[in-house]
């Protein structure tokens, strides 16, 4: 009997995806460029229908037609090289799927090249880390809809399921799936940084212990802030270092890494005039964190404000921080979803915003209870200009801005940096300002460069001899 799907790339993610497919009844052929990872996977097998192949030709020939080949290979040149090695063995109608974090522009190039050869290509965003890959990730497939339909029975089966629905939906043409995954990661960066800032406030301004903060996060996770990232933060804070007995968090070096997807999100937004300041601040926060040695020097050279004893009432302020975090989160997701909307209009992708919110509810890193409300907001108005003006969120922010303003003010006055919380507030205040100060910018541009300006009371472009 032929295999129903093939998986190439047997690192942790690829092995787990293959096992997930097999656990869901698929007959899976697996292949890896080097033999060691294939052997590692076969040693783990426990009766699953996973068959290893050590020659690409035999791997391809073992698949039923149209062949479905799922790549879980490091994004970049490795994908092109695998595709290149597959090409001589494939036939018209066969389908290659890339489940890695590829740049959506690379996916579009590959899609075009393979389409010309009569092959189907799907760029599939997968979120959920190694556990999600095994037990059910969130899946964002992009490419031709008819090609997706052929792979859909497998993809929807292996996806996380929420309320009986798979966290997998057709996203849109060409690179749309990888684009949606990329911005998911941008939102992830912002969400993580916002949580880190709330933690900083609780630790440094309210002087709470790591254990007390873990309790607070656990409590928050039982309410409207419920999300995977809040949940794991509580668990992280409870973990003790085996070597020192200290909270592990205290011995982890404060230098954040990144693999590029958050950076791509900001670059794409900047290239297309999309305001994603919170997401970009979260990226810059990682960059500044990486300047550890410089920061240590600056700490001894640069002064902050005089430190006064903290007189903040803990109970009151824990609630204000909760409000600030929730509002920051709303603003960050509003920016990410706005990036979806504006890009969708630009490329005529017709991204299903309501469904994107729904498939983010399970499996993925940014899964959160409030994605239900986001989905409902788009259900009510599919052309909603911005999540901030959806009635539910507008009402929330009427109440919660007090918390965000107070927390940001405390940071400013006491010299503690809250880049994403303050950027969230700035975004909120800028977005609700009907007449901004950009008229002065236009006047300046016209003054020094004759760049012209528009008037509030007449159509057309004007120039003044200043
Ligand atoms: C996911 C994650 C996953 C990964 C990213 C982020 O959705 O499963 O986003 O894709 O963790 O690579 O990593 P960086 O923080 O290293 O950019």
Task: Show the helix and strand layout.
Elements: E1 5-8, H1 12-23, E2 28-31, H2 35-44, E3 50-53, H3 56-61, E4 68-71, H4 77-86, E5 95-98, H5 104-116, E6 120-127, H6 129-135, E7 138-142, H7 145-158, E8 161-162, E9 165-166, H8 176-205, H9 210-220, H10 228-238, H11 261-271, H12 277-290, H13 292-301, H14 314-347, H15 353-359, H16 371-380, H17 391-414, H18 419-431, H19 438-449
Parallel strand pairs: 1-2, 1-4, 2-3, 4-5, 5-6
Antiparallel strand pairs: 6-7, 8-9
Helix pairs in contact: 1-6, 8-11, 8-12, 8-14, 9-10, 11-12, 12-18, 14-17, 14-18, 15-16
Overview features:
alpha/beta; 7-stranded mixed beta sheet; two-stranded antiparallel ribbon; Rossmann fold; 9 strands; binds 6-phosphogluconic acid; 466 residues
CA(first)-CA(last) distance: 81 Å
Class from helix and strand fractions: alpha/beta
What's the CATH class label of the largest domain? Mainly Alpha
Overall radius of gyration: 25 Å
How many domains would you count in the coordinates?
A: 2
Give me the side-by-side strand order of the main sheet. Answer: 3-2-1-4-5-6-7
The helix/strand series, from N terminus to C terminus, equals: EHEHEHEHEHEHEHEEHHHHHHHHHHHH
Number of DSSP E strands: 9
The appropriate CATH architecture of the largest domain is Orthogonal Bundle
Reported for the largest beta sheet, the result is:
7 strands, mixed
Bound molecules: 6-phosphogluconic acid
CATH topology of the largest domain: N-(1-d-carboxylethyl)-l-norvaline Dehydrogenase, domain 2
The CATH superfamily of the largest domain turns out to be N-(1-d-carboxylethyl)-l-norvaline Dehydrogenase, domain 2
Mean pLDDT, as a whole number?
97
Helix count, per DSSP? Answer: 19
**Overall morphology:** globular
User: Spans with pLDDT under 50 lasting ≥5 residues?
Assistant: none
Helical content stands at 55-70%
Q: What percent strand?
A: 5-15%
